[in-house]
TrEMBL record:
Catalytic activity: ATP + (deoxyribonucleotide)n-3'-hydroxyl + 5'-phospho-(deoxyribonucleotide)m = (deoxyribonucleotide)n+m + AMP + diphosphate
Name assigned to this protein: DNA ligase (ATP)
Keywords: Ligase
GO MF terms held by the record: ATP binding; DNA ligase (ATP) activity
Residue ranges of every copy of the ATP-dependent DNA ligase family profile domain listed in the record: 114-227
Name of the top EC class for this enzyme: ligase
PROSITE patterns given in the database record: DNA_LIGASE_A1 (PS00697), DNA_LIGASE_A3 (PS50160)
UniProt record, GO biological process: DNA recombination; DNA repair
Length: 354
């Protein structure tokens, strides 16, 4: 491979802001795997956000790159999988599997798509020092008629349209809106764009905690919600406490510690078979590797309010943010019914453009 921009390339990133800023280039925020695709003839490399290759996990996108991308190019975008008219991150994560046979089976059953939103190189020219407006024009010129599974991300400079996308597109599983300065040069690994994400709150049961990697202090609280059958399901964690608060929480939660965890609703977490019928903390995965998944069980008696952006099935998609304790709420009152559901919106409508 001999391109003006060679792999690995870490993608340019975005920092969170509360409101959509005016006077920018706007796109939907895709909930998938960020990927930079390098193509030089038949050679294709798909790089991840960390720079590590994703190529072997998406053989159908390697074929699509050879068929639908320019002969020599570097394209920034997102790998997504759609199911039932919306993005499905769980099916996407299933692709990161060591067995090639399983990867290819899943590629046939739930094929991925590549949504392109930036062009870093074309033929012998690097475009990384060109302003976003010129890179976007070049992207639309070379991929204007591209066919699935490759798509060009819809974009607009109309803030009112971006506001409408922010409200509508969540129903298709998208994550919010990205705003990019019009004169922005491409700078790998720099947070020069802006992301505006949905945030909601929920009252959840605190049923355990994990220790922080720095020592015997609280790293994250394990959160639960009761389902319709009265079972406490693990829905995620909240973290981002200060060092002082981590130490305080150990003492604050000490009266609730259950050792041994007999009678705890998640006491069977170490049994792999138990994870098949309930959502429990500590499930091993390809992402966790050798990471210590053990945790300290607590009597599920305390309730806290957390901020979250959206759900992925029956769990929080990302780490929730602790807001406050809710001594006025009983654990049994913390169920899924309180969670706000976005209005459904078909993903194909999103990809058809503004």
């Amino acid at each position: 491979m001999d391109l003006p921009v060679m792999p690995p390339v870490k993608p340019m990133l975005a920092k969170s802001v509360k409101k959509i800023p005016p006077g920018m280039h706007y796109e939907a925020k895709w909930d998938g795997f960020r990927a930079i695709v390098h193509r030089d003839g038949d050679e294709v490399v798909i790089g991840s956000r960390t720079g590590k290759p994703l190529t072997r996990y998406f053989p159908e996108l390697v074929d699509a790159a050879r068929e639908r991308l320019p002969e020599r190019c570097v394209v920034d975008g997102e790998i997504v999988i759609a199911h039932g008219g919306r993005l499905d991150f769980d099916r996407l994560t299933e692709r990161i599997h060591p067995a090639d046979s399983r990867v290819r089976m899943l590629a046939g059953r739930t094929p991925a798509r590549f949504v392109a939103f930036d062009l870093l190189a074309l033929d012998d020219a690097s475009l990384m020092d060109e302003p976003l407006t010129e890179r976007r024009a070049a992207l639309e010129r070379v991929l204007g008629d591209v066919r699935p599974p490759v798509h060009v991300a819809p974009a607009t400079t109309d803030a009112a349209v971006a506001e409408r996308w922010f409200e509508q597109y969540e129903g298709a599983g998208l994550d919010g809106v990205i705003a990019k300065p019009l004169d922005l040069r491409y700078r790998p690994d720099a947070r020069l764009m802006y992301k505006i994400k949905h945030e909601r709150t929920a009252d959840v049961v605190v049923a355990g905690y994990r220790l922080h990697k720095t020592g015997p202090v609280v790293g994250s609280l394990l959160l639960g919600l009761y389902d319709e059958g009265g079972t406490l399901q693990h829905v995620g964690v909240c973290a981002a406490f200060t060092a002082a608060r981590r130490r305080e929480l150990v003492d604050e939660l000490a009266p609730l510690v259950m050792v041994p965890p007999d009678g705890h609703p998640w006491a069977s977490w170490a049994d792999a078979a138990a994870h098949e019928s309930a959502r429990l903390p500590g499930a091993p995965s390809r992402w966790s590797g050798k990471k210590d998944l053990s945790w300290v069980p607590l009597r599920p008696e305390r309730v806290c309010e957390v901020g979250y952006d959206h759900m992925e099935g029956d769990r929080f998609r990302h780490t929730a943010q602790f807001r406050r304790w809710r001594p006025d709420r009983t654990p049994e009152s913390c169920g899924y019914a309180q969670l706000e559901e976005p209005v459904s919106y078909d993903l194909d409508e999103v990809l058809s453009g503004p």
